[in-house]
Each structure stands twice: as structure tokens, then as C-alpha cells.
Automatic annotation (TrEMBL):
Domain of life (superkingdom): Bacteria
Family the UniProt entry places it in: Belongs to the AHA1 family.
Name of the protein this chain belongs to: SRPBCC family protein
Domain Activator of Hsp90 ATPase homologue 1/2-like C-terminal: 16-138
InterPro entries attached to this UniProt entry: ASHA1/2-like_C, START-like_dom_sf
Pfam (any one): AHSA1
SUPFAM superfamilies reported in the protein's UniProt record: Bet v1-like
Length: 153
């Protein structure tokens, strides 16, 4: 059995655990820095959807809440909408929030990815989203351009 690839990203943000938790779980806030509304009640076992903020109602990812310990830890599964019923195709995202004085350390672990192509996509996506999140929490606004649109290389 080969191990599935994963990705870990750590970022430090001038914020509180409570405000960071809100930014990760409030659909209106996720729309501001992610371009998607993350919609759920965030209780273990509940469904969540990653719905485009353009008003189309299209969900680009879906999953289940595995763990929810506000404001310290959130674990969700991720799948393409067409693969929601195929748990063997789900990946898993863990958000760990640790306070230190006036900052928080956010560690995002995305594991159970299908292959290196998926790991590469995640490795370019998470830094862009989390940079936008950091800017929003520290300045009150996201970056002036969507960071995931910056050409590679």
C-alpha cells in the first residue's frame, strides 16, 4: 500500500483564535477572502459545501465535518460533488489554531490526496487562500488581487 500525498502549511496571523475561527466558518467571511462561501452548521457529522460566491450556487467541493472544537480545531473531509458518495476519493483538511500572546499559529494539513497532481494543486491553492485570510484579518480587507490568479513561475 502506498501512502497518499499530503500538504502542511503554517501561517502566523495577528488575530485571536475566536476571530480566526469565525473567519474559517462564517460563510460571508469566507466569501470575502476565498471567493467561496463555506456553508455548514460546523457540527461533527454535518455536511459542508464550498459554494462559489458569484451567486451561481455551484459547489466546487463538499464534505463532512469530522471534528469541531471551537476555536482550536476543525477537521473536514473534501470531495468533488460527483464523488461525495465515494469515501475512498475524499481528502481531509485539518485546521489547528494555537494562540501565542497577540498572534495565532494556523496549521492547515490537507492529507489523503489522490496523487501528486492533486498535491501540487493544493500546494499552490492553500498559500494563496491563507495569505488572503491573513490580510483580511490584519487589515480589514483581502489582498487587492485574487492571489490564486497569479501566474506560476
Amino acid at each position: 500500500m502506498t501512502e497518499q500525498p499530503g500538504f502542511v502549511y503554517v501561517i502566523y496571523i495577528a488575530s485571536t483564535p475566536e476571530r480566526l475561527w469565525e473567519a474559517l466558518t462564517d460563510a460571508d467571511l469566507t466569501a470575502v477572502y476565498w471567493g467561496h462561501r463555506n456553508v455548514s452548521d460546523w457540527r461533527p457529522g454535518s455536511r459542508w459545501e464550498h459554494v462559489r460566491a458569484d451567486g451561481s450556487g455551484v459547489a466546487d467541493a463538499v464534505g463532512r465535518v469530522v471534528e469541531s472544537e471551537p476555536p482550536a480545531r476543525l477537521v473536514t473531509t473534501w470531495a468533488a460533488p460527483g464523488e461525495e458518495g465515494r469515501e475512498d476519493r475524499h481528502s481531509r483538511v485539518t485546521f489547528e489554531i494555537r494562540p501565542y500572546e497577540d498572534i495565532v499559529r494556523l496549521t492547515v494539513t490537507h492529507d489523503g490526496l489522490g496523487d501528486e497532481r492533486e498535491r501540487s494543486a493544493v500546494a499552490s491553492g492553500w498559500p494563496a487562500v491563507l495569505s488572503n485570510l491573513k490580510s483580511l484579518l490584519e487589515t480589514g480587507r483581502p489582498l487587492p488581487q485574487e492571489p490564486w490568479r497569479v501566474p506560476a513561475g
